[in-house]
Design goal:
Blueprint (H helix, E strand, L loop, with lengths): L7 E5 L4 H7 L2 H6 L4 E4 L4 H11 L3 E3 L12 H15 L4 E5 L6 H6 L4 E5 L11 H8 L3 E8 L9 E8 L6 H5 L2 H11 L7 H9 L14
Helix pairs in contact: 8-9
Amino acid sequence: MNTKPKTFCIYCSDGASRVIKFYSVKENLEKFKPKKVIYDGDRQDVVNQLSEMFGQDIIHFNDKLKQYDIIKIHTSTSKFIHYILDKESIDYLLCFGTKLLKKELIDSYPNKLINFHPSILPSFKGLNAVDQALDYGAVLLGNTAHFIDYGIDNGKMIIQSAMLTEEYDTYEDVLEMQFPMIKMVLRDVLDFNISKKDIKKEISKRRKKILMPEKCFI
């Protein structure tokens, strides 16, 4: 018996490039559309692109900041996301944002908040992870999807991907490795019906050779 897919929301920041590129593929938008997309950046061009894709389901958080304490931006963002998840009865959050989510939200949604981080954790946590890895001289670059806990990029790992640093040209080489990971998380954690063939097709689209498991660790 097929399991009904879980509902999910996306939180993104800055240029939201991963979200925009993933959902610029019509099939992804039709089959894996989030219930809501929360954007906390200040770029109107990004707001416009997200609005074209998601219509009224895009929520620009900066427009709502007057309702919250702008000085405590991490706490304010976490409270607002918590409000949206509760209000819309959303099961999971896929996180591509820069703010740290706080204890109240994490406790309310244990193992339901999933972060996509551009490094092979536990190495190179925090912001500018790709730059950290390049400066260190790492042999491999990659990504990790993990559940969010109280630490910074410290929660239980769901799936990882890797590529040789010698093949690196741009940030997008690393970030786009997350696209097949997103589909694997949607399949293995959120119960979407996605075939192995579809996952392999997504991997083959990438410009670089990448290494990742056939399914999530959990």
